[in-house]
Write a structure and sequence with these properties.
The protein is 39% helix and 20% strand. It contains 12 helices and 12 strands. Strands 2-1-3-5-6-4 form a 6-stranded mixed beta sheet. The chain has a 6-stranded parallel beta sheet with strand order 9-8-7-10-11-12, sandwiched between helices. Helix 7 links the parallel strand 8 and strand 9. The radius of gyration is 19 Å and the shape is globular. The relative contact order is 0.13.
């Protein structure tokens, strides 16, 4: 029986088994997917040994994504751009790594708003960490014209400008309201607004009226940031769709079938998130 897993430290919070085992059952595939707690000091060895293990691949969650990037034999272009791997698979006996966070965001966006065309659009990203990097790269690949960065640490913003080029620009406090007036897509990639974290302090009253507002957080399902955007009559996109869509390619690589993100799967995972949120 083929087996895949998700590795992290800690790992109890992961919804990946719920997603992948739903697909395995739905498509009648004789395989299994499980959680595996791997300590940071053991990650590199786990990845190196994958080709001779019981697993055909794995997902990678915090805090292992950078270490796994260093450990895989082959990292694709997207993983190399990120310096981080979230999906590991075997190809011709070699342990390979990719990163599906960016494509997960884009697929979620297209799934919920199929008419939204990123070409010639201006996006603003809040944050400059790994998730921001994934989404910036994916937006540029989709043809976004300009991408502004709002971040507390200027050094990280400048690093993103250096990596991605002239279409990426810094937004400081004095530019904020003008930048928001010209924004088509606003995305929070920080942990602010997540359960147990401080709320996001970005005033969106000046945001272009038809701008789409997205948050990659899914606990809670609707952050205060998205609630405010809805009150201002903006279309919104929560983070759960990105979680589901980023899982698609790994499943296809391991089990040979491209699964569908259905309403039933969304509701199954949403109910699990809500239950945990209420405990």
């Amino acid at each position: 029986m083929r087996k895949a897993c998700v590795i992290g430290w800690p790992i109890a919070h992961s919804r990946s088994p719920l997603i992948h085992n739903y697909w395995l059952k739905k498509y009648g595939i004789d395989a299994a997917y499980e959680k595996k707690a791997v300590k940071p000091e053991n990650v590199a060895q786990f990845i190196v040994n994958l080709a001779t293990s019981e697993f055909v691949g794995c997902n990678v969650t915090i805090p292992h994504k950078e270490k796994v990037f260093q450990a895989v034999a082959v990292a694709d272009k997207i993983a190399s751009r990120m310096g981080a791997v979230n999906t590991v698979y075997l190809k011709d006996g070699a342990v390979c790594g990719t990163n599906t966070d960016g494509e997960g965001f884009i697929a979620s966006l297209h799934h919920s708003y199929p008419a939204f065309d990123l070409r010639t659009k201006t996006a603003i990203i809040i944050g400059a960490g790994g998730a921001a990097k994934a989404i910036i790269g994916a937006l540029l690949d989709e043809g976004a014209a300009r991408i502004g960065i709002i971040n507390r640490t200027r050094e990280r913003t400048l690093g993103l400008q250096e990596q991605f080029g002239s279409r990426v620009f810094e937004i400081n406090a004095t530019m904020m309201s003008d930048a928001l007036k010209n924004c088509n897509l606003l995305v929070n990639t920080t942990s602010q607004g997540m359960e147990g974290q401080p709320q996001l302090a970005v005033d969106i009253r000046h945001l272009k009226q038809d701008a789409l507002v997205a948050d990659i957080i899914y606990v809670p399902m609707e952050t205060a940031f998205l609630e405010k955007a809805k009150q201002l009559e903006h279309p919104v996109l929560g983070g759960l769709g990105m979680l589901l869509h980023q899982a698609v390619r790994g499943f296809e690589l391991w089990f040979g079938l491209k699964p569908e993100v259905t309403t039933e799967l969304y509701e199954l995972v949403a109910a699990d998130v809500q239950k945990a949120h209420e405990q």
